[in-house]
Amino acid sequence: MLYTIGDVSERTGLPAPTLRYYDKEGLLPFVNRGSGGIRKFQETDLEWLRLIECLKASGLQIKDIKRYIDLFIQGDSTIEERRQMFYAQKENVEREIKMLQSTLDLLTYKCWFYDMAVELGSTEAVKNLTEEQLPPHIKKIKAKMNKVQYATKKKKDCAA
Amino acid sequence: MLYTIGDVSERTGLPAPTLRYYDKEGLLPFVNRGSGGIRKFQETDLEWLRLIECLKASGLQIKDIKRYIDLFIQGDSTIEERRQMFYAQKENVEREIKMLQSTLDLLTYKCWFYDMAVELGSTEAVKNLTEEQLPPHIKKIKAKMNKVQYATKKKKDCAA
DNA sequence: TTAAGATTTAAAGTGAACTTTAAGAAAGGA
DNA sequence: TCCTTTCTTAAAGTTCACTTTAAATCTTAA
Questions:
Q1: With contact defined as beta carbons under 8 Å apart, do A39 and A4 qualify?
Q2: Do B79 and A123 contact (CB within 8 A), yes or no?
Q3: Low-confidence residues of chain A, pLDDT below 50?
Q4: Which long-range contacts (CB under 8 A, 24 or more apart) does B96-100 make?
Q5: φ, ψ for residue A13 (rounded to 5)?
Q6: Between the N and C ends of chain A, which has fewer C-beta atoms within 10 Å?
């Protein structure tokens, strides 16, 4: 079964120009062309696109993904470098999840804060609540937040 | 205690031009100026910066954060809108964490795959492993990944 | 008072990832 | 065959969040 770029766009939700852009950047080297130069996508190409989406979600840039694809094409001699790339990216995602979880703590606190502000009619009234009047889970979050100061934001490190 | 922009830059890790940029965009409306027009930061300004960093980490854009600050300045009449903003953003972060967790599954699988490829000397050899030869946690991940197809990527929805 | 170093501004430049435009070629149904 | 739709390309435009530049002004130690 072969798909045109329009089919693939519909199935993936990616705009056709984006698919052409990925192709131009070397992210889709396995897509064949028909006689008239028209791209013919196969199921395996859709699988590559799923992997690309996932790597993008993990924080890799287009050029990093291209690097990976180039390594893939080179074959088994690049296994070690690909392995290292995935380990590095796994660490990045683990770190990112941790950061988002502490961001979530703050948002949970803010949601509670504004729930109370709605209830009490002002933000001042919430600030005037004593420590004992806070629900336990909010106390816990506040304690946690006080520990975190400026998270030294790690630069998005490339899959080296 | 008052801080110059250089002090704040050092303490937060944010470059001074970035702080000026935030100020210009209206994210730091509480920073005072000395006689010569030089910014004098207070502890409360550092707290605002921490909140800004957090909201940025949650996926809010500069203009969304400005919107929040404008609402804050308007006072208690905007409590409800601020509440809704935080709830929406909390949902965004929860969704983002879920997405990263499935991304992490894929990366965990890939790390295992390339560990095996190193061990066996080729990627083909790993592909030829039978279902029974896979460790349980990898089987589990593979089963999970088969369910997820194209995650309909939600647009970064603004705090409405 | 003077020199060095930090701060100010506006404006231009950057990099990433698309997105849009324009003009032309191919595919597929009536 | 014709017509409409979909495809092709290259090139220019967009958005976001800074970053850099340049020239002027302020602060501070000698």
A1: yes
A2: yes
A3: 151-160
A4: B96/A100, B96/B59, B97/A97, B97/A100, B97/A101, B97/A104, B99/A57, B99/B151, B100/A57, B100/A58, B100/A93, B100/A96, B100/A97, B100/A100
A5: 85, -5
A6: N
pTM of the model: 0.91
Distance CA B17, CA B6 (A): 10
Count of A-B CB contacts under 8 Å: 110
The Cα B60–Cα B53 span in angstroms is: 10
Residue closest to C5, CA→C1'?
B6
Strand-pairing partners, residue A40, are A32
Q: What's the one-letter identity of residue A41?
A: F
The residue that minimises its CA distance to C1' of C16 is A61
Question: Does the CB of B156 sit below 7 A from strand D?
Answer: no
* pLDDT, tens digit (0-9, with 9 covering 90-100), for A142-151: 998 887 665 4
Domain boundaries, chain B: 5-74, 95-159
The nearest CA of chain B is from the CA of A16 a distance in Å of 16
Question: Cα A50–A51–A56 angle (5° rounding)?
Answer: 100
Question: How does DSSP classify residue A130?
Answer: -
Q: What is the mean pLDDT of chain B?
A: 92
Q: How far apart are CA A33 and CA B139, in angstroms?
A: 36
CATH class of the region A5-74: mainly alpha
